Amino acid sequence: MTRIKRGYIARRRRTKIRLFASTFRGAHSRLTRTMTQQKMRALVSAHRDRGRQKRDFRRLWITRINAVIRENKISYSYSRLIYDLHKGQLLLNRKILAQIAISNRNCLYMISNEIIK
């Protein structure tokens, strides 16, 4: 009986995994089984941390806005400012408010003073 060579499909799959894991350290980039495990682990972490990143940035923006507002004592607190913004139908999200707070504090003070009136 003649020898049958294996196909290329498994090799192609392993090559794909090897390219993904090429930057990993040690056996994680050399051994096929550990490469597959680490690839799955990396993808799980990436998926989990996409949600966490949104949470972390929202927390950062809230902290920045609150710090600038309390610094000058022009107005109350962060929660009061957000409440007044929604009540005044001024639709600025927290990212934009944080950018205004960092780059141009006077503008944030003007916004908060206009809302109070």
UniProtKB/TrEMBL annotation:
InterPro entries to which the protein is assigned, alphabetical: Ribosomal_bL20 (IPR005813), RIBOSOMAL_L20_CS (IPR049946), Ribosomal_protein_bL20_C (IPR035566)
Superkingdom of the source species: Eukaryota
Subcellular location field: Plastid, Chloroplast
Reported function: Binds directly to 23S ribosomal RNA and is necessary for the in vitro assembly process of the 50S ribosomal subunit. It is not involved in the protein synthesizing functions of that subunit.
Record lineage: Eukaryota, Viridiplantae, Streptophyta, Embryophyta, Tracheophyta
Plastid is among the record's keywords: yes
Principal location listed in the UniProt entry: plastid
MF-aspect GO terms: rRNA binding; structural constituent of ribosome
GO biological process, one term: translation
Protein's name in the database: Large ribosomal subunit protein bL20c
Family from the record: Belongs to the bacterial ribosomal protein bL20 family.
